[in-house]
Design goal:
The chain is an alpha+beta fold. Helix content is about 50%, strand content about 10%. The protein is built from 8 helices and 6 strands. Strands 4-3-5-6 form a 4-stranded mixed beta sheet, with helices on one face. A two-stranded antiparallel sheet has the order 1-2. The longest helix is centred in the middle third of the chain and has 20 residues. It is globular and about 55 Å long.
Length: about 230
């Protein structure tokens, strides 16, 4: 069962870690490239702030973004801002999200995200937690996939394995870190199954498009090519 109150508290903790880390930067380093192709650290910070506001829209029954073009334009507009402005925006938008999450609501209701995707309102705090944790890593400022909370890493592997489950372009695949295992891709139906073994951080990095999978061990075939998220 999804515990949205727990996830809201986890978002708050992750955001504080992010704000503390970003607070050690300077104006010049905000302009440096992030680990995301074509994006500076300023782009990542702008996206995080605008995503918080977008998820407030979702929780309050409005479209997540006016349009994909408007979303991209807002990020481009906000990316060049100085560190103090970025920090203030991150903090203020995070507060707006927490306030929306703390408001009395029917957490079992269905909400609409981008591109017609729907989900339970109760999963929105976890989606925000994912944004904060993975984009903190994307900044390239010393926070790595290995530093993520273990409970978060396991849940995100669960989420991404489920996302690719049944995908026609992904072969039947078993993921394991040794003690635990997940299945994703198409149905095996008695045919061969690829087994991908690695640390939780490396499995998550591959599933989330943050690592190539070079550190993983693969049996039963080549490492599957995953479609973009």
């Amino acid at each position: 069962m999804i515990d949205h109150a727990h996830d809201l508290a986890s978002v708050r903790d992750a955001t504080e870690r992010l704000l503390t880390a970003v607070g050690t930067l300077d104006n010049a380093s905000v302009t440096h490239p992030s680990r995301l192709p074509g994006w500076s650290r300023g782009h990542v910070l702008a996206h995080l702030a605008r995503n918080a506001d977008a998820l407030v829209n979702v929780l309050e029954g409005r479209p997540m973004y006016v349009s994909g073009e408007a979303r991209d334009a807002d990020i481009e507009r906000d990316a060049p801002r100085g560190l103090d402005v970025q920090l203030a925006d991150l903090r203020e938008s995070a507060t707006r999200f927490q306030e929306a999450g703390d408001a009395p609501a029917d957490w079992a209701r269905t909400v609409e995200l981008r591109n017609g995707v729907t989900d339970s309102a109760s999963r929105v705090p976890f989606r925000r937690w994912v944004e904060v944790e993975l984009h903190h890593v994307d900044l390239g400022i010393g926070y790595e996939l290995e530093d993520l909370p273990a409970a978060f890493t396991e849940r995100e592997i669960d989420f991404l394995a489920d996302r690719f489950a049944g995908h026609p372009d992904v072969p039947p695949t078993r993921l394991t870190d040794g003690p635990r295992a997940w299945r994703t891709g198409g149905e095996a139906e008695g045919g061969p199954e690829v087994t991908v073994t690695g640390s939780p951080a490396d499995l998550l990095g591959w599933l989330a498009g943050r690592r190539t999978g070079a550190a993983l061990t693969v049996d039963g075939g080549p490492l599957p090519a995953l479609p973009p998220l």
